[in-house]
Amino acid sequence: MVEAGDWFGPADGGPEVLAALREQMARADGFLTGRVTFEQLRSYWPTQTDDPTGISAYLNQVRKYVVSSTLQDPGWTPTTVLRGLDDVRRLKDTVGGEIVCTGSIDLTHQLIAAGLVDEYRLFVYPTVVATGRRLFLEAQPLSLHSCSSFPSGVALLIYRRRD
What we know:
Layout: H1 15-27, E1 28-34, H2 35-44, H3 55-61, E2 63-67, E3 79-82, H4 85-94, E4 98-101, H5 105-113, E5 119-124, E6 142-149, E7 155-161
Parallel strand pairs: 1-2, 1-4, 2-3
Antiparallel strand pairs: 5-7, 6-7
């Protein structure tokens, strides 16, 4: 049985999925997380010196935004601490490119409820995990924008909000 905490690795979907992840990273001008996810990422990725995936290099250089009412010194540059959804809304209105949010389920729920998510990029792995928290807490009107499948069985589904 696969446990929820140990089923995913960045290259688990094969080189094609890794290439798609790299493409997603290249398109993003900002990386948004909640405090818990940020602290988990900060404790691991900056120390990865032999990372063939490119994720460490990306996370070390991308403009990071952390939504937290308690974090004072992020300790990982370049990082800006945002104090709430109003700050996220202002950021969304000013940043020219894409802002991605990974993990951070509590923050993601707040972003969805506030109407701040324009697009969902879902990498679906052929692994059933019977635990965890839902992404959607209520029905969302979405339109499928694109769908890609990879030899490993992973699928990338991109949905856009339908207003």
